[in-house]
Amino acid sequence: MKKAQIVIGLGFGDEGKGITTDFLASQNPEAMVIRFLGGQQAAHTVMIDDKKHIHSSYASGALRGLPSYFTEHCTVHPVFLLNERKELMTKRGNTELHIHPLAKVTTPFDVWQNRTNARNLEHGTCGKGIGATMKRHESPYKLFAIDLIAPREMLMEKLKGIAYYYGFADEKEVDELLLPFLEAIDSIDWKINDYTWLASFNHLIFEGSQGILLDMDHGVFPNVTYAHTTSKNAYEICKLLKIEDIEMYYVTRSYATRHGNGWMSNEKEIVLKNNDEETCIFNEYQKELRFGNLDYQLLNYALKLDAAYGCSTKKNLVVTCMDQIDEKFEVENLDVEFDAVYGSYSPYSKDFRKL
Predict the structure, then answer these.
(1) Would you give the distance in Å from CA 305 to the centre of its chain?
(2) 50-60, pLDDT tens digit by residue?
(3) Residues forming the annotated binding site?
(4) Which position among 22, 44, 53, 203 bears the catalytic label?
(5) pLDDT tens, 92-119?
(6) Residue list for the binding site for IMP
(7) 44 assigned to active site
(8) What's the burial of 227, exposed, middle or buried (CB within 10 Å: 0-12/13-18/19+)?
(9) Which of 14, 22, 110, 306 is catalytic?
(10) Strand 340-345 to strand 351-354: parallel, antiparallel, or no bridges (unpaired)?
(11) Is this model's pTM higher than 0.90 or not?
């Protein structure tokens, strides 16, 4: 029987979805790891012995040796993808990546928009062009993964249209922005496959991105992401593939975090221990990583919200960074019953155990 494991963050992102995915990949070396939202903005850190990799354009099984698949709900930026591919190759990771034909492509013009638009900067952005890409796709100026293998003349006409959409009038400036973008496209062997290609795998690991509290429908607007961060997309794909054996892994740190602007309950300064490998640090677009005590009401809210999108055969809770604060995680404060509760300790999945 085909099986799916779905990894979902219960907070505002940065919960430990990458190390949880890597943990599942270590147990299922024949699986395919599927990113079902987000794209190059992810910073999912995995450490295996002395090797460390931050997964963005690849799923978090790549360092472990598993192939990656990006669904139609994801974005792809050829330059960022090529750069990560080169890095993964030096670490002997798996650079096999299959992309749904309707995955959205981020262009240099989208990145420019994310990094220069005053409203984007006020509300918060990763600076990787994700929000601009999703917003542009509400207009006629779309660009999909399938277009990357279309005739070059057609691709160029679409890119010129996107430049026009953002108000670029200087042809020389457009050409300069597109040069590394086009070189990256030509350097990658694009594997464009729809969901029927996944039918040959008996085990699928769905890796979420960001967290439920940033969901475009359920987060506190305007500080949300242009994505369904619940298990909604993963369940829909499982339904298409007729997978009924579905196991959930809900992830939270032992404390609350939020990277960038927006509402956050229980915010306070927290002194962390054993935190040398923290990936989410200050940057000029997202600003500071903020901390706080866990809000168990919010955790219950996120769990019940996600349950509205599907029904799994098994639910697991994963609590990461358990050695970074002294406070104890109180499972009894959660209304949902779990089949298992796991804890992980720093740095990043070197110690995963049942609690």
Answers:
(1) 19
(2) 899 999 999 99
(3) 13-19, 210, 225, 287, 321-323
(4) 44
(5) 999 999 999 999 999 999 999 988 865 6
(6) 14-17, 210, 225, 287
(7) yes
(8) buried
(9) 14
(10) antiparallel
(11) yes
